[in-house]
Design goal:
Layout: H1 2-8, E1 15-20, E2 23-27, H2 28-38, E3 43-45, E4 53-59, H3 63-72, E5 77-82, E6 95-101, E7 120-125, E8 130-136, E9 141-147, H4 149-159, E10 163-167, H5 171-178, E11 184-187, H6 194-205, H7 219-234, E12 247-248, E13 256-257, H8 259-264, H9 278-282, H10 288-299, H11 305-320, H12 322-332, H13 338-346, H14 352-373, H15 378-386, H16 391-400, H17 421-431, H18 433-448, E14 454-458, E15 462-468, E16 480-484, E17 488-492, H19 494-526, H20 529-555, E18 561-563, E19 568-573, H21 578-581, E20 591-595, E21 602-606, H22 613-628, E22 637-641, E23 645-649, H23 662-674, E24 681-686, H24 694-710, E25 717-721, H25 730-733, E26 737-747, E27 750-759, H26 767-773, H27 778-799, H28 804-819, H29 834-838, H30 855-866, H31 874-891
Parallel strand pairs: 1-5, 7-10, 9-12, 10-11, 13-23, 18-22, 21-25, 21-26, 23-24, 24-25
Antiparallel strand pairs: 1-2, 2-4, 3-4, 5-6, 7-8, 8-9, 14-15, 15-17, 16-17, 19-20, 19-22, 26-27
Helix pairs in contact: 6-7, 10-20, 11-20, 12-14, 12-20, 13-14, 13-20, 14-15, 14-16, 15-20, 17-19, 26-27
């Protein structure tokens, strides 16, 4: 236990799996945690004694079963192994921590997701900017970026790291900006020194500077990357030769998708249980490398038309040649996870079965290269140039490893016969001992003429030759007598003694030689790490493009035109996810969308609930995104001027843990949009303002549309879905605003959703109809109809003439603009145009404030009538209001 506690102190925050004989055991609090997570028995060591301690353990051969459960539960697990053979140990067996497995640092297949990267991230908060780095140790991918906290939040959302590192003093800052949801670990402050991290990186890459990687100017990013390498060393992962490069994530290179948009569009994760994200529809990749790359493409769409066009042309070429696509698909099925297999080679953790998988994958590289080289597409020819069959390694693995080799290397049956002469001899002795002894017995019978001679064995004398007394005179002088019996004598020979030594140690030596030869093969494979990593990258790109072609062929996608224009024109567009979820035989209703900066910048879409407004918004964003990752799109035709930012404000949910209501979340996301607009942005807003009162909501929505229309430097293309029909008046005031509605048909008190976008605004929301469809009790629906008709009559009666309250509201609307003082920043906001004030949304419900029979209220009414609110100063207005309040209180 002293040994245990000494090792536990090295990593106090980690669960310590302590190897004792054939078991991994945990003690004290670790045992309680382990038994709860693994659902195994919690027992005691030294029960009833002063040294009693909780104990939980499992067999060492079950490590691959239990370790993933601990890691997925967010635990850091230190594995303590026996460092010497217990048979040879004197006293206590030496033990040491051989590996620290954390959620972000693991090679175990049962921990890793096949189609997802397992990123470890590190964040460094600088004075002006922050740095972030991502590493997937299972593939060797190493990335670094630097920017403001919004950019880092976007990257964290997109890459979804399994574990995040930061400085201990930055814990509060991290949780404030990025929340407590990430599995994280805090490092000491000294680790985040620039000089230390820079030296760590240059030592690892064996360079004198980082200019060659294009990251030398990213001071905060360098610190984050250096922290990751430090953490690998701290967790006993010293074999990191496969991390041979570090790439820069350039913000200007990819479309901006903030964390709200990635969530709202359900690109890689559904928002609700049972939902289907875009990646599930789009992913028809065959290899794990392709699946992981596709996820990255989806959250990092391109902005450069030339690169996008190259991908689109390649997909078009594959579609035009179905035979080539079919053959490539067939060959890709032979390729396992090249990326992770070669990483296991680099860290010497690959088993014989995986080495065979690597060999089979390399066998498929040659035919793929030949197919690509014969293509007319330059992009495919370039991919062919990047492929290297590594024939030497492939043939060596095939020649040395048995086709039926297992997972373990210390139990024999790994290498083929003929690989090593001594190995073959030992196998003959260990596994063909009886045959050898029978041959020796027959040979000696012939040589001596003793027909009754036999070879036997006992524990005292080992192997011996037994001769009956009748034939003692025929025994050769070279034989050595070992034992005399009543009727026979036993002898040994030099050959038999030599064989005995061999057969008794054959299995042990056999396993040792196999292990040594296998390790030599793995070392030889390490020379091919760069070439095979390059193969993996090329195969991943090919797999993604082939997946795009397959999807386009199966679901009638078309090639979009992506250029530098500012036009977004989608003809008969469809939602890629919803159309695949429809019942058999039901067709998706397509729609046209056109947006530009000169005539139709903002489209206000009205229509009832369930008519398809939100689906229309999302499908527009998804079509743009698909086009800019190089995929064909679900439409009849599409022209897309490159979009640099996609913003969405759709759906609503409380964030009660942070004290944020639905409306607060909505306003936070909307503020993020308005503060980050660009001239090529695409903005999708759904039901802005619905989380507050009607008047507040209309006012906010109105102001937002005006801001989007009048912003001098950013004519962002916008789709604005709303229930506030009053916003249709904006089309009269703002020249680039257009009204559309989602059509419905009404018959016999029921409505039929046409899901077709038509020009013009809508005046009805049909909320009561939707309530009936949802199964609302009939009594509630009927009462709602009564109330609605009553309110409509009230609105009609009050709209015939302007009431006193209308005048008061109009005055209050105008007064702030006239009396508005300059804000703290010093710049006075522009006054709202008179026409806009005159046509501002009016309340649809007029409530009676006064009872004419009450004389006190009648006097208050007369005073209000005589007031000229346009001439009152703010102080006079407050005094008058207080006077009226006292008058009303006197009545009470």
């Amino acid at each position: 236990m002293k040994q245990y506690y000494a090792l536990k102190q090295q990593h106090p925050g980690a669960l310590l799996l302590f190897r004792v004989g054939d078991f991994y055991e945990t003690f004290a609090e670790d045992a309680v945690t382990t038994s709860r997570i693994l659902d195994i028995v919690l027992t005691k060591r030294g029960a009833g004694t002063p040294s009693e301690v909780a104990l939980a353990g499992f067999p060492h051969h079950s490590l691959d079963t239990y370790l993933p459960k601990l890691v997925r539960a967010g635990q850091r697990v230190a594995i303590c192994d026996q460092l010497e053979d217990p048979k040879l140990a004197k006293g206590l067996v030496k033990r040491g921590i051989t590996e620290l497995v954390t959620p972000g640092v693991s090679y175990h297949d049962n921990v890793l997701e096949r189609k997802s990267n397992n990123y470890l991230a590190a964040i460094h908060f600088g004075k002006h900017e922050a740095g972030i780095s991502f590493l997937d140790i299972s593939t060797g991918e190493f990335l670094v970026a630097q920017g403001d906290l919004n950019y880092l939040g976007k990257l964290l959302q997109n890459f979804a790291p399994a574990e995040v590192l930061f400085c201990k003093r930055s814990r509060a800052e991290f949780e404030q900006h990025f929340g407590p949801d990430f599995c994280h670990y805090a490092l000491d402050e000294w680790v985040f020194g620039f000089d230390y991290c820079h030296d760590t990186l240059t030592r690892h890459f064996k360079t004198t500077s980082l200019k060659g990687y294009g990251i030398d100017s990213l001071r905060e990013g360098i610190v984050a990357a250096g922290c990751i390498l430090h953490y690998l060393d701290e967790t006993k992962h010293s074999e990191v030769g496969h991390i041979a490069n570090i790439g820069r994530l350039e913000e200007d290179k990819y479309v901006w998708l903030d964390r709200f948009t990635v969530r709202n569009l359900e690109l890689v994760q559904p928002q609700h249980a049972g939902g289907v994200p875009l990646i599930d529809i789009l992913d028809q990749t065959i290899t794990p490398m392709g699946a992981r790359l596709l996820r990255k493409w989806v959250v990092l769409p391109l902005k450069e038309p030339v690169q996008i066009q190259r991908r689109l042309d390649t997909v078009e070429g594959l579609l035009a040649n179905p035979d080539l696509l079919g053959e490539l698909t067939q060959q890709l099925r032979q390729i396992n996870d090249l990326e992770r297999l070669i990483s296991k080679v680099a860290v010497r953790r690959i088993n014989p079965r995986e080495l065979l998988q690597l060999s089979r994958a390399l066998e498929a590289i040659s035919p793929i290269r030949d197919l690509l080289a014969g293509s007319e597409l330059r992009a495919l020819q370039k991919l062919a140039e990047q492929l290297n069959p590594c024939a030497t390694l492939r043939d060596e693995i095939k020649a040395k490893i048995r086709p039926d080799a297992g997972v373990l290397t210390n139990q024999g049956h790994v290498l083929n016969d003929g690989v090593d002469a001594e190995l073959d001899e030992l196998r003959g002795i260990a596994f063909s001992g009886k045959d050898f002894l029978l041959q020796l017995q027959q040979r000696e019978q012939q040589n001596t003429g003793i027909s009754s001679l036999k070879v036997a064995y006992n524990k005292v004398f080992g192997y011996y030759l037994e001769v009956t007394n009748a034939h003692k005179d025929k025994v050769p002088q070279s034989w050595i007598r070992k034992q005399t019996l009543v009727n026979a004598e036993r002898y040994v020979t030099e050959e038999l003694k030599t064989y005995e030594e061999k057969i008794l140690t054959a299995e042990e030596r056999l396993f040792g030689i196999e292990q040594s030869l296998y390790n030599e093969l793995v070392l030889a494979a390490m020379d091919f790490v760069p070439q095979i990593q390059q193969n993996a990258r090329a195969v991943a790109v090919l797999d993604c493009l082939a997946s795009f072609a397959t999807t386009a062929r199966q679901h009638r996608y078309v090639k979009p035109v992506v250029d530098d224009s500012t036009v977004l024109d989608i003809r008969q567009g469809r939602h890629p996810v919803i159309e695949r979820q429809l019942p058999p035989g039901e067709a998706y209703i397509p729609n046209d969308i056109r947006l530009d900066q000169d005539e139709q910048q903002i489209v206000i879409i009205t229509g009832p609930n369930m008519a398809g407004k939100s689906a229309l918004l999302r499908q527009t964003a998804l079509i743009v995104l698909l086009a800019q990752i190089g995929s064909f799109v679900p439409a009849e035709a599409a022209t897309i001027g490159v979009i640099d930012k996609i913003f969405t404000r759709v759906g609503a949910s409380d964030n009660l843990s942070k004290g944020e209501s639905t409306f607060m979340v909505e306003m936070t996301e909307t503020a993020s949009i308005l503060n980050n607009l660009s001239d090529r942005s695409l903005v999708l807003m759904d039901e802005i303002g619905r989380g507050t009162s009607t008047y507040d909501g209309i006012s906010i929505a109105w102001a937002i549309v005006e801001h989007l229309h009048n912003a001098p430097k950013a004519r962002a293309k916008t789709l604005f879905a709303t229930h506030y029909h009053e916003l249709n008046q904006l089309a009269d005031e703002c020249p680039r605003v257009r009204n559309y509605n989602v059509a419905v048909k009404e018959a016999d008190g029921r409505i039929l959703f046409m899901r077709k976008l038509t020009p013009g605004g809508s005046e009805h929301s049909f909320g009561i109809h939707v309530a009936r469809m949802a199964g609302m009790p009939t009594a509630v629906v009927l009462r709602a109809n009564e109330i609605m008709h009553h309110l409509e009559q009230e609105r009609t009666s009050t709209s015939e003439g302007s009431t006193l309250l209308d005048e008061v509201l109009a005055g209050l609307e105008a007064a702030p603009l006239e009396a508005d003082s300059a804000p703290a920043g010093g710049r006075k906001p522009a006054a709202r145009p008179a026409a806009a004030v005159a046509t501002a949304p009016r309340p649809t419900l007029q409530l009676s404030m006064f009872e004419p029979a009450d004389p006190t209220l009648e006097r208050i009414r007369e005073q209000l009538t005589q007031l000229d609110v346009n001439t009152l100063t703010p102080i006079e207005a407050l005094l008058k209001l207080n006077e009226l309040k006292l008058a009303a209180a006197g009545k009470a």
